[in-house]
Design brief:
384 residues, Heat Shock Protein 90, five-stranded mixed beta sheet, 12 helices
Amino acid sequence: MVETVEARKAKVLVVDDNAANRDLARAILEDEGYVVVLASGGEQALTLFAVEAPDCVLLDVRMPGMDGFAVCAHLRELPQGAETPIIFLTAMRDVDTFDRASLVGGDDFLTKPVRAAELLVRVQTALRLRQLDSERRELFGQVRRQRDALKRLQLQKEQLTAFLVHDLKNPVSSMDLHAQLLLRDQTLSPRSRGAAMQVQASAGQMLRLLLNLLDISKSEEEQLRIRRAPTDLNALARDVLADMKVQAEAAEVTLHMNDVCRVVAIDRDLIHRALANLVENAIRHAPERSEVWLRVTVDERGVLLRVADGGTGVPPPMREAIFDRFVQLDAAASSRCGQGLGLAFCKLASESHGGHIWVEDGSPGAVFCIHLPHDLPHDLPHDR
């Protein structure tokens, strides 16, 4: 009787030139009862494969000497190598890498940093599929091809997003710069000055959208880094309202803020853009000749940022869904909540600081609230 993988402890060969990556994979797999064999390079992997006969291979792509693609091609030529599942691990998220992994016979493709739960599921699935009969394998092959097509589409989308963001940033920044130059011209007519201000405001709005999209993509790849620095909350609020001045005047909405003389350590750019998104959203939905307030309070628990308007408010059932990306709302709610990335970015910015965001009833209107826990707060001189 042939011994099945379930009847014994499955053996996994981990191939990676980085010792920390090997140790992490071993710790994850051994905690689940797997026997783990480690190889630091391609040549060693081929030798260990012949000796240890592993049930599954986790294979890094970038390695000195023989890379993962070459190792996979050689493994497929060895006895038992054709049927052993090979899962590629790589930090590269491009279509070419994915296509090469599929071409040389890779069974699965995981991008780093790898989550423990995801790694275990992929290994378990690969081991179970190894024992399926031919008819089921063919059926799964169809499913896997569909999965690979979706994965490839996802990678193409990420590449397109990155190209769009980087390629559009320069012309948008150039629009903003030329608008600033026009506004410095003292001979400019009031009408032309107003048009230049509108161009500058629109360029700023577009640049925020691009940066928000870039940061969301970084967050998906776990590459978003928070750069905390002492930030004057009064100056931050003033700058946000100054950026929104043109939109507010066009909508006949008055912007207000309170004074709070404090400095806190936050990523100023992220929080600035989050507040700008919230104020812009408030202006869009505030009635004409109404007010939008940006209030900042600081206590022993942290910083509370509140943006309030007198618009239609947010229906209670939608108060969590509105922070999801590309949320689809019913017609009545969508006029207030929108369908984009602005509020999703606000959630990202707050949670990346260890905080959270929510919306309250303004009676009338909505109050969007961001709470950020304290990090190295300092008092400013009370000169007001």
